Amino acid sequence: MKSGNAWQDKLLILSMDKINAGELHQFSSITGSCFINAPYEQLRDGLLEFFLRYKLQPEIGLEGECLWNIPKKEFQITADILKKNSLSCTLHTPFFDLAPGGIDSKIREVTREKLRRAFELIPVFQPRSIVCHLGYEENKHSYKMEQWLKYSIETWLELIEIAARNNTCVMFENTYETTPDIHHRLLTEINSGSLQFCLDTGHLMAYAGTDWQLWLDKLLPWLGQLHLHDNKGQRDDHIAVGHGLFNFQELFDFLRTTSIRPIITLEPHSKEDLLLSLKNIKSTKLLNGIINQAKS
Fold first, then answer.
1. Can you spell out the DSSP letters for 14-39?
2. What is the longest distance spanned by two Cα atoms in the chain?
3. CATH of the domain at 147
4. What confidence tens digit (pLDDT) does each residue in 159-172 have?
């Protein structure tokens, strides 16, 4: 049984005290061109002020009850605050309990309704992208592959149309998938210019057990976003970039040989890991030649 720990990557906890202003401001050339995961519920509870203070651009996580309980006018207020402070954002749709390709029609409809509510926030936030999970697990869905694909494609076609009308790209992120095959099949069968791939480095290590080369050999033409975090290959720990086993230098050396400049999101679990990630990125010049062309 897969652990649910991957989805706690949206639970970034950054204390607003005990932080030296210079600690983050010295990395403004990086943070000004990247996004940092920020659960909406935490933005409501003080995290927004932190992001405003340090000019951080959020990838807004919509997990939990917020899509059911928070009125659109409150989301609009948050969006207006970000715009007033010249901060772009990305959106991250919910994952827990959802089944975009679910066999049960009632579960599928609840899933679609919740995802629909997330996509209806695109005109509000005008995000650079909206990141989604396929909800595919080989040990369950491979036995009903064609059914799963049919329902999944039906789910995403409606949502991608909403994104396309608002000039926002949908990103399919890798999670528990062990190969790029299911992403490749969906990307090719849906065949939309508003659909791309988000490579999550930590999920490759913790769940796929395969290297990035396998994935980009097949999905490079669709690569539109990166989620950067690290682990030791056992759990989806979301530790600082460079403090686990993932070879970030190798990945970015390769990307510099291509014309692809993906959106970049940092996904730390703590203030300390955010700072460590930024220090490592700066000291290794990891994003040189990438972020200056990725920023809108």
1. --SSS--HHHHHTTHHHHTTSEEEEE
2. 54
3. 3.20.20.150
4. 999 999 999 999 99
